[in-house]
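Q: Structure tokens for this one, please.
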Amino acid sequence: MVQVTAAPDCGNAPRKQVLRDFAVAMAEHDTDSLLSAVADDVEWEIVGRRTVRGKADFAAAVAAGVDRRAETLRMDSILTHGREGAVSSRLGLPGGGGLRCCDVYTFSGHGKTATIKRITSYWIEE
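A: Here is the predicted structure, written as tokens:
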């Protein structure tokens, strides 16, 4: 289980909790939670590395990262507005080192049940 650190939330922005849960699921490679949060036609661009389209490719991309399971996840900032959101975080990896991450999200709509339609990830190895 990943050790998670995040600033407390005021509770007035429900999508912040959605993005927090998604970031934790990503760090823990919880494929079931991740797949339930994304649209069927999700697009995930990891800038400079790859782009995946659709749930099947998304699940395969998550599974491919299993060998790099995070030990810690520190969420520095979670921002949301309308159909968009972003998470700035740091992943600590086994044996030292880690990733600095900024993930930008677009939801499929404004409703409470809207799923994640697009993710653009900017990751820098530390």
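A few notes: The chain has one domain: 13-125. DSSP finds three helices and seven strands in the chain.
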